[in-house]
Amino acid sequence: MDHVPFKHKRTTLERAEKFISPHYFTDINLRSRLYRERASLTSIKHCAVQDRISLNKALQGQFKTTSIGQAFGPVWSTHWFELEVNIPVSWQGQEVHLLWDSGSEALVWVQGQPVQVGTLCSFHVVHIEMACNHLFGVGNLALVKPEDDQRTFTLKQAEIALFDRDVYDLILDVETLHDIAKELPETNQRSFQALFTVNEMINQIEVQDRSTYKRAQEIAQEFFLQRNGDSQHTLFAMGHAHIDTAWLWPYDETKRKCARSWSCTLRLMEKYPEFTFVCSQAQQFAWVKQLYPSIWSDICKFVRMGQFVPVGGTWVEMDGNIPSGEACIRQFLYGQKFFQEEFGIKCREFWLPDTFGYSAQFPQIMRHCGVSRFLTQKLSWSLVNKFPHHTFYWEGIDGSSVLTHFPPGDSYEMKGKVHELLKTIHNFRDKGRSNCSAFLFGYGDGGHGPREDMLGRLERLKDCDGLPKVKLASSDAFFSTVESEQPSRLCRWRGELYLELHNGTYTTWAKVKKYNRLCEILLQETELLCTMAWVHRSLLKSDSLDYCYPRTKLDALWKLLLLNQFHDVLPGSSINMVRACVPYYCSREQQGTSTERHSPDLEPCLVNTQPFARREVVKLAHLDSARPSPKRRKLSGADADLEEDCNETHGEFLKEIMIYLRHLNNHKPRLVLSLQEDTGPIKGMVCERYNFYLSSVLVFCAGSLHARSMCVIESYFLCTSWSNEAIDSEHPANQFLLYDDVPLYWDAWDVMDYHLETSLQISDKSYLQQKIILEAGSPFVRFDTEVTWHENRKFLKVEFPTTVHTMECAYDIQSGFLRRPNHFNTSWDSARFEVCGHKWADLSEHGFGVAVLNNSKYGYSAVDGILRLSLLRSPKTPDFKADMGVHTFSYALMPHKGSLQEAGVIQAAHSFNCPLRVVDLPSSPSDPIASQDGGSDIGRSLFELDTAKVLVQAVKMAEDSSQTIIVRLNELFGGSVVATLTSRLRFQKVQVCDGLEDFNSEDRDIDFHHKTTERGSEITVKMSAFQIISLRCCI
Ligand SMILES: [Zn+2]
């Protein structure tokens, strides 16, 4: 009888580890047999190019012989190789691999097609497109290091080898058994069963003798085939390649990353018919369609087969905080439209695994775009608090909710390893409520995607007793299973999904954020004006005014804006090279502006693109005395009582001509600005005009900034009707603060809580100048600011210490507002020391409040009644020049009576961001719209609303019809309202639609009436708090 030694766990585990190790005993272990034979290539030829060019173009270049050991560069260049491969006769019919290691990314081309994975035939010329960057750009070792320009890439390996698939399978068996033995707790007998099994396998195998392999495989199979019971948790495993559309590489490299990743994925699909791969971002599909026809046709084939699964429904995976409500809807509109046109598919889930926090408006925007499911995992990165759910209903500010899932493994790039399966099941916080979760596998961020070994592991573990069951499936299968469980058991989370990290991204790359805001507004205004131009044309039918709605141009502009809202571009977390998108914005700005001026017959007119009446000071940049004065033309609800009163320059300070509005807003509160000359180097000029009812103040301040001691102006805001001072008399307002801004690791991303305890002096390289302007009739004081900024890891904010007593601060978000604490009571409150808001933030108590408006900023903090606006940061990685240079921006202080709604804070912020435009329009004697009903008043609004509680968020021509106008309404105040929208156009039919301009069953309950009257159309709609409603108005 044999004497069996006592089984020592550690020695047995390490025995198994060394048996398949790529580092130890590689001359005799099992892994040493993975390639049975190797052979050199017949020849290696090389051709260097600077640009990313096609194979055909590359073939026109000169290829010269090169060899292993050669280094190639510089970074971001491309090198094409032509390999002559001669497979030995004895290898015929067997699996032969090309082994290539250039330490960089590369794509294999065979017979003119990108293949990446494939079988080599008897004789081949193979081309390799080598990119001088690795998966994570060209940084030096650490992820967030800036680019290393000196880096080169050395060709270390180029040969062919005969692959032994039996050895490969045995390696996976040993590895998986070893991992089960190691990862399962000692209280679980399966751990020991795995240990004994792997030990027995190794005893069985004589590595040089392939005849011993079969018995070892059988031993492993017996273990893996021992099944789970019915109650076991199921993981829905989806292949995935998170490809950042730009990050540590530019957009152009991403196009090639898609080709490299997906060509490999498609070959795996041919081999593994059960394998499904989920893929988001329509923009990446569009690039591949344009540049790689053979990959595209394979994608189409596997989409039809249900293996290559488009998900997410958006144009790119955008930032989750900063884009406007309308831009978010357009992400879905263009994304879903692409998937529908190309594949006949409408995604049912929103897919945003890697974005830095999620707006409380998202559930509503998703629902409005026909999406009811959401997947992310980023909240696992929160520093302070652990989010309490993985599967739950997420409810937005309007009460809409979506089924939401965070893959509990806290990653979108699993490798199919045992410890990942166990982590997923252990972490899952909704046990009992649900019995399944998602498992995303494949290399990510830089792309690459699933590999064959991952599928091999998951195949072994698909139903192995003691471990969760694994099912290769799509996200639709996963969510449908959750919905079929007992969804009423699931918990609910209301409000935003705040990421307690990366909150510096509301401020980094200030110019990108500034242009983003500007272009979002410009595009919406341009669409409105183009729609109006089309209405004029269609009703007048005059050849001289013939006008075609510029749909193609607008689509292209929107898609570029949406692309730059990608979650590493708009947040400012990409390399310097990606910031090249800034000039793009400038050109869009010009294009947007030029679209307004399409006629040579010019007459300056005022255009109000907002649906409410306004009184504003209008600046004319170039006043020509020979030209007529601007006329009052109400083009969109404008009620600007403009009269030309004063054309006068103000010395050296203001070059523009200002035209004041005569009829003043006599409403309280009245603002009085008092200057304290001794607080700093202030040069001032005060213009008191038109006695008591018109007071316009222009102040020009210049000087260096002295941290906390610096106070540009001390302002007291008094109101005759109540005794409050809005600003704390002990602490000056508009005080600039400079903080030490050194995060723990993620430089461009993070600002840590401890920055609030610091106070620094600005260096002599930076300075700030500011105009403080109180315009006639304006409810706010405005601060036009120019900063020359050359700091290192410093954070500039401006502070307003108010006298408001309140528990909460309200912040403008996409299409509504959100209240967050004005205190640090709990860890959840204090973790939100820096938050995202859009055009305004407001602190109000009963009867009065103070708002801060801005035209390009997104970072705020509010605690104990002190409201701070974040202005500029200065991180050095991954963009070593981030935010250096000159910045101009404006913000404003608006003390008010009553609530923020009663005081018109929201309208004021919209006006601040979309000032009345002076547009040169043709001087037409008759107004076509007015002539429709014989009226005579010029320039009546296209749409008018009878309530200030509702905003017209968008007016555009429908995607699918040249005779239909889309009007999108948004309830602003957070309450229900019956709104009446009137138009001078007589619509034949008005229907409720969703954000995709389709009919959505969820919109059936919307209570609305449409009637045509003598004067046009009247649409009455009942809206609930923050509701967004889209209407199709057919002419
Ligand atoms: Zn990402």
TrEMBL record:
SUPFAM superfamilies attached to this UniProt entry: Families 57/38 glycoside transferase middle domain (SSF88688), Galactose mutarotase-like (SSF74650), Glycoside hydrolase/deacetylase (SSF88713)
GO molecular function: alpha-mannosidase activity; carbohydrate binding; metal ion binding
Organism: Elysia chlorotica
UniProt enzyme class: hydrolase
Keyword set includes ATP-binding: no
Name of this chain's protein: alpha-mannosidase
One of the protein's GO biological processes: oligosaccharide catabolic process
Catalytic activity annotation: Hydrolysis of terminal, non-reducing alpha-D-mannose residues in alpha-D-mannosides
Residue ranges of every copy of the Glycoside hydrolase family 38 central domain listed in the record: 500-584
Enzyme Commission code: 3.2.1.24
Residues that span the membrane, as ranges: none
Keywords: Glycosidase, Hydrolase, Metal-binding
Stored PANTHER family: ALPHA-MANNOSIDASE 2C1 (PTHR46017:SF1)
Family: Belongs to the glycosyl hydrolase 38 family.
InterPro entries: Ams1-like_N, Gal_mutarotase_sf_dom, GH38_C, Glyco_hydro/deAcase_b/a-brl, Glyco_hydro_38_C, Glyco_hydro_38_cen, Glyco_hydro_38_cen_sf, Glyco_hydro_38_N
